[in-house]
Write a structure and sequence with these properties.
This protein is α+β, with helices and mostly antiparallel strands. The chain is 48% helix and 15% strand. It is built from four helices and three strands, in the order αβββααα. A three-stranded antiparallel sheet has the order 1-2-3. α2 (67-82) runs antiparallel to α3 (88-102). The protein is elongated, with a radius of gyration of 17 Å. The relative contact order is 0.14.
Length: 114
């Protein structure tokens, strides 16, 4: 069977990608159990962590490729919630950073691997 000239041959994903996804899923599961009021998942397609806030009446979603930045943003939202804010100001301020971070490949620091 011949392939057309413009079609690229697909290569199977490297096992390193699969291991990385498994590791990130385990990190997300441990964060999920540590942070009540949040649903935290790993998106293999986007290569980012997503945290859904269940603390307030308004839905709030945080995306980040770094665990440390994600936890910092979760802390900001929780602080805003305890001070009577909704967290929307935090979300609006971080929207530009989220879009910028999506363009970068994720980087796992040593603390993320633990």
């Amino acid at each position: 069977m011949r392939r057309s000239a413009g079609r690229a041959r697909r290569h199977p994903r490297a096992s390193g990608d699969a291991n990385r996804n498994l590791q990130a899923e385990a990190v997300a599961a441990s964060l999920q159990s540590a942070y009540r009021g949040w649903v935290i998942i790993w998106s293999a397609w986007r290569q980012a962590f997503t945290a859904f806030c269940a603390l307030g009446a308004d839905p709030l979603i945080i995306d980040d490729t770094s665990v440390s930045r994600l936890l910092g943003r979760i802390g900001e939202v929780e602080l805003a919630a305890t001070m009577g804010g909704t967290g929307e100001d935090v979300n609006a301020r971080r929207a530009a950073e989220t879009m910028r971070d999506r363009a970068r490949p994720p980087r796992f620091s040593r603390e993320d691997r633990a």
